[in-house]
Amino acid sequence: MLSTLFFLPENNIFKWPTTLQQLSLSGNSLSNTFLSSLRELPHLQYIDLSENQFEGALDISENETFKWPTNLQRLHLSSNSLNNSFLSSLRDLLHLQYLDLSYNKLEGTLDISGQYFHPLLYYKIL
């Protein structure tokens, strides 16, 4: 787990170590704009962003939608305000084994086969 944040004063954003594999930031009132700080983490396998303020389709800005690190295996996003349009951001997560989307704003029947989801060992959608 991460014990130290790296701060770049010239542009006031955090710079995570590119070798980071696990990150838990649950319950921190983070919003969609925070996700831009996770762009350059190719080795990230576990991320817990539950109990934050992420919403909608995870748009970072008006012209940019967030893309998850492709090696991600475990993703915890419970207790946010994500809606169905966010599901397309999971399309390229070929290694994803665990997914928790409980307590979001997902509606209707969700197809967790082929289109967005690859073989999951565990998923939780309430």
From TrEMBL:
<keyword id="KW-1133">Transmembrane helix</keyword>
<dbReference type="InterPro" id="IPR032675">
    <property type="entry name" value="LRR_dom_sf"/>
</dbReference>
<protein>
    <submittedName>
        <fullName>Uncharacterized protein</fullName>
    </submittedName>
</protein>
<keyword id="KW-0812">Transmembrane</keyword>
<dbReference type="Pfam" id="PF00560">
    <property type="entry name" value="LRR_1"/>
</dbReference>
<keyword id="KW-0732">Signal</keyword>
<dbReference type="GO" id="GO:0005886">
    <property type="term" value="C:plasma membrane"/>
</dbReference>
<keyword id="KW-0325">Glycoprotein</keyword>
<dbReference type="InterPro" id="IPR001611">
    <property type="entry name" value="Leu-rich_rpt"/>
</dbReference>
<keyword id="KW-0472">Membrane</keyword>
<keyword id="KW-1003">Cell membrane</keyword>
<keyword id="KW-0675">Receptor</keyword>
<comment type="similarity">
    <text>Belongs to the RLP family.</text>
</comment>
